[in-house]
């Protein structure tokens, strides 16, 4: 039977129960520590966190707000008993009401706006752990520590660099952008860099409603820009956030950015060859001949799955020239969008989530539709530059399949199968919207699903693939849920899968955002092969109002970013909804947490 014996190696822990505790709950026998909090100084000269005296200058040297994606990279450096790694973190967005006492959303001050700019972006921080424990501590003032903010210069790279669509009065060449915004999840490349997806960039740009040029307004609206004032009102302090003053500034966001975290003087780059949309994440896999394939999701309802295949091969040498070469891999290649076709009778896809009668699986075939290769467009009526800058419009024309909010997409390093978290889509089947299909089988989908696909011939550059739903999430008692056929009375309930990663045994780990089952969000592990395939086990849950982000699973520790704790309607500094992590007299602070076995042994064995 499927349940005989032990859970898969790496997942042998007592699952945590669904709960609404205002803390990070972990399995019995596990401990935890805070690695770093919002506002802790990481650069030389940065002051200690003092929320009553916060300044933009201080924030620019401190860990940013709302940590999301995390990457841990190797560092050949030892300090006594300590082993060091390089941690890269995204800071997706700011919650001003939880950052500033007495914040007036109608009258934000310039200093508050500038603190917000400095609290966005990325952090690079060296972290250190003892050999005998999974606990990690930040190493402040290390020479590799770095902050990238909403005002750091970026180079625009790839086929749309210099495009007329990217030019502004501050940058008439269309090649230098100030800052990165809304960095959600990301990826770690085999050549030692990190990728960061610029996601919900619409929230920063004011006055789309007032744009007179209808064509331009429609292009902005296709990227969800709308209305007049923005919530943070940054347009009052910098004209570039007002589209009636700087019409093309929004085109300079919504990219995948690449950072070389080992070189603190490097200029980060926006990789236009990977297209412009609401990038959730970007995780590469190499083809057998060394080309880079990057899988990507566009996180909005009814948006698409994409991949990029580089034309050049990665060089594995360690010379400066090899490294410089690898930093050009993501500038030249082909951008594709996915079409998925089910193979079960249409009548069987009734929107309930119950399995089709023919093969008792939601599955089918798919193809990757090319949109552009280098300077060549494959989309009628659009230049290659337009395909890259208005990728959503290109994918619409190509007839791609509208998915239930594609979040993280990652290939398993063990099997090569690719997993895509489709977080939810409550509009599926609503009036005037696309109805259920085999890959997105539920109407009013509140809990999401996880798609698994295999590229033809296990070649990530293939044009065809087979797919099936691995998990249809929700309450296991609900007949419209599915756990790869694993007995449903033996799994942890899971809702709204978002970020994903793999452990060294090949298990898939999923973090959730927006649990609709009455529990706080959490982190879950699940075997993808063998008898225990589909056995979802809850590893931790996060505090009130928080989302679980950035999971990294190493043999000795699990690292998570606890994002937006206390983010509950009506909450403020004066009326906090959470007391995490430092208790009732302190500010609620997004923080990175490390979880480990108290007895010093490996996770889940
Ligand atoms: Fe920033 Fe799609 O989550
Ligand atoms: Ca089928
Ligand atoms: Ca996310
Ligand atoms: Ca991931």
Task: Provide the structure class.
Answer: mainly beta
> For the report, how would you describe the main beta sheet?
11 strands, antiparallel
Instruction: Quote the beta fraction.
Output: 25-35%
Radius of gyration: 23 Å
Mean pLDDT: 97
Could you tell me which ligands this complex binds, including any ions or cofactors?
Answer: MU-OXO-diiron, calcium ion
Number of helix segments?
7
Count the E strands.
Answer: 32
In terms of per-residue confidence, which ranges show pLDDT below 50 for 5 or more consecutive residues?
Answer: none
Shape: globular
**Helical fraction:** under 10%
Ends: how far apart? 21 Å
Describe the structure concisely for a colleague.
With about 600 residues, the chain is mainly beta. It has helices at about 55-60, 95-100, 110-120, 215-220, 320-325, 385-390, 390-400, and strands at about 30-35, 65-80, 80-90, 120-130, 135-140, 145-150, 155, 175-180, 185-190, 195-200, 255-260, 270, 285, 290-295, 300-305, 305-315, 335-340, 365-375, 375, 405, 405-410, 420, 450-455, 465-470, 480-485, 495-500, 510, 520-525, 535-540, 545-555, 560-565, 590-595.
């Amino acid at each position: 039977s499927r349940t005989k014996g032990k859970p898969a190696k790496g997942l042998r822990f007592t699952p945590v129960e669904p709960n609404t505790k205002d803390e990070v709950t972990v399995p019995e026998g596990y401990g935890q520590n805070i690695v770093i909090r919002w506002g802790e100084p990481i650069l030389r000269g940065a002051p200690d966190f003092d929320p009553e005296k916060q300044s933009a200058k201080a924030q620019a040297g401190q860990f940013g707000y709302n940590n999301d994606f995390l990457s841990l990279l190797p560092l050949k450096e030892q300090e006594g008993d300590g082993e060091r790694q390089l941690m890269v973190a995204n800071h997706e967005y700011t919650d001003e009401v939880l950052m500033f006492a007495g914040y007036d959303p109608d009258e934000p001050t310039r200093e508050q706006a500038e603190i917000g700019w400095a609290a966005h972006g990325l952090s690079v921080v060296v972290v250190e752990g003892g050999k005998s424990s999974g606990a990690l501590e930040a190493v402040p003032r290390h020479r590799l520590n770095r902050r990238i903010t909403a005002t750091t210069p970026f180079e625009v790279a790839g086929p749309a660099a210099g495009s007329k669509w990217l030019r502004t009065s501050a940058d008439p060449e269309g090649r230098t952008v100030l800052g990165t915004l809304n960095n959600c999840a990301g990826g770690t490349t085999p050549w030692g860099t990190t990728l960061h997806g610029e996601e919900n960039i619409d929230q920063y740009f004011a006055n789309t409603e007032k744009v007179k040029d209808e064509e331009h307004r429609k292009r902005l609206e296709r990227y969800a820009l709308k209305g007049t004032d923005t919530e943070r009102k940054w347009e009052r302090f910098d004209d570039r956030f007002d589209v009636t003053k700087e019409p093309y500034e929004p085109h300079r966001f919504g990219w995948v950015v690449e950072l070389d975290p080992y070189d603190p003087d490097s200029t980060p780059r926006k990789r236009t060859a990977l297209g412009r949309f609401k990038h959730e994440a970007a995780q590469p896999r190499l083809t057998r001949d060394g080309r880079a394939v990057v899988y990507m999701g566009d996180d909005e309802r009814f948006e698409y799955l994409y991949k990029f295949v580089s034309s050049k091969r990665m060089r594995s040498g360690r010379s400066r020239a090899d490294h410089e070469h690898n930093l050009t891999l993501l500038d030249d290649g082909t951008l594709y969008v996915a079409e998925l076709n089910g193979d079960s009778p249409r009548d069987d896809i009734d929107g309930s989530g119950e399995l089709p009668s023919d093969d008792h699986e939601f599955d089918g075939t798919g193809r990757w539709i090319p949109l552009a290769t280098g300077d060549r467009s494959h989309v009628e009526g659009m230049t290659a530059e337009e395909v890259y800058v208005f990728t959503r419009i290109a994918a619409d024309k190509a007839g791609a399949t509208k998915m239930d909010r594609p979040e993280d997409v990652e290939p398993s390093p063990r099997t090569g199968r690719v997993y895509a978290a489709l977080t939810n889509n409550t509009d599926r089947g609503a009036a005037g919207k696309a109805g259920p299909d085999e890959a997105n089988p539920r109407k009013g989908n509140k809990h999401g699903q996880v798609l698994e696909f295999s590229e033809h011939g296990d070649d990530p550059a293939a044009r065809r693939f087979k797919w099936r739903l691995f998990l249809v999430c929700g309450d296991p008692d609900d007949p419209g849920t599915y756990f790869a056929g694993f007995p449903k009375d033996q799994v942890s309930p899971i809702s709204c899968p978002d970020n994903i990663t793999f452990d060294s045994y090949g298990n898939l780990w999923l973090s959730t955002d927006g649990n609709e089952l009455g529990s706080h969000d959490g982190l879950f592990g699940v075997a993808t092969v063998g008898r225990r395939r589909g056995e979802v086990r809850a590893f931790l849950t996060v505090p009130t109002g928080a989302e679980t982000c950035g999971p990294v699973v190493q043999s000795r520790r699990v690292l998570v970013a606890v994002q937006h704790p206390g983010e509950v309607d009506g909450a403020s500094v004066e009326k906090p909804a959470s007391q995490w992590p430092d208790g009732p007299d302190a500010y609620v602070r997004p923080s990175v947490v490390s979880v480990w076995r108290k007895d010093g042994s490996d996770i889940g064995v």
